[in-house]
Structures are given as C-alpha cells and as structure tokens.
Amino acid sequence: xxxxxxxxxxxxxxxxxxxxxxxxxxxxxxxxxxxxxxxxxxxxxxxxxxxxxxxxxxxxxxxxxxxxxxxxxxxxxxxxxxxxxxxxxxxxxxxxxxxxxxxxxxxxxxxxxxxxxxxxxxxxxxxxxxxxxxxxxxxxxxxxxxxxxxxxxxxxxxxxxxxxxxxxxxxxxxxxxxxxxxxxxxxxxxxxxxxxxxxxxxxxxxxxxxxxxxxxxx
Length: 218
What we know:
By secondary structure, the chain is an alpha/beta fold. Helix content is about 35%, strand content about 20%.
C-alpha cells in the first residue's frame, strides 16, 4: 500500500508533548508590533511565524496555543492585523510571530499593499525563522491567494507546514476531500514540510501536537 503524500502528523510521544506543554505553560507576552523591517527585534533566538489569509482563524489559534483568550486579537473583520506582531514565548527562548493576514482586507488599497510588501520582506530575510505555519481553513482548502504565499516561501527557502484550522466546522467526509485537495496542491511546493496538522481552536484538537512541534524545532 502506497503511503499518502503529506500524511497527518503522528501523535507526539509523551516526552515531546511535555516539552511543548512546558514551553507554552509560562507567560507569553506581547513584545511589539512592527510596521517596517527596521523595527524588527534582534535575531537572537529561534522564531516561528503564523501566516494565513484574512479571517482564517489565526488569532484564535495563537490564543489557543498560548492559553490566553485575548493575546492575539480576534476579529470577524478580515484584515484587522496590519503589522507583524512579536510575542515572547517560553522564558524569552522563542519568538512567536503573528503575520498580517493576506488576501482580501477591508482597508485602503495603499495600506494593503504596504503591509503585503512588509510580509514578503520578512519572509525573505529573517535568518532565525525556523518554520512558517501556513493556516488553511478546513472548510475551503488552499485557494489561489494561499498559493502565492506558498510560492514566496519556496523562493525564500523558508520551510513551511500547513495547519488546517476550524476542523470542528466540517464533517469527516468533507474534511477528507479538503485534505486530498491540500495534498495535491502541496506537491508543487518544495519548501512544504511533509506532514499536515489539523486543529480546532474551539475544541482544542491538535493544539498539544502543534505545541510539541514548535518546542522540538532546533
């Protein structure tokens, strides 16, 4: 039997899960919002970033990971996050980075273009970035606007891993169809990490696994 391309990530062992729990058990604090590359903090520790099209559930996922209900602002208005938000994680051993939502946004065109350029500059030039987590809505799969960011990550040589959000909003059969679509799309992206993570911020599904993945990056 041929193995599926891009299988779901396996359940981490107890030691890995504990490492993830400990990393996120401490206080996570907001450091700064960055609107230009010159404002980035020193590249002196491992960092991971979260990218996703507007309204994919990125803020909710970050809040679920860190156990803080309002650490990252959640909003029903697409495009609310217009800067790169840095958080100190795990006794300041990691940076957790919330990137501006890409794609449709209820903001002036000039504003949208400015922070899309900032997003691309960051992804292309941050030496301590170990992995980008690209969030994909489990109800919709990879859209054209997602493909643009995945291609940018390829050309920037930034390893990225797809995280499906809102899995509690879809039935098992529908989720399988989306997984098949995602797998087909990712085969064209050499920077894609070969395992998928399925999460639900509301139900907590996949959250310990994602914590473990982040804690075990080197």
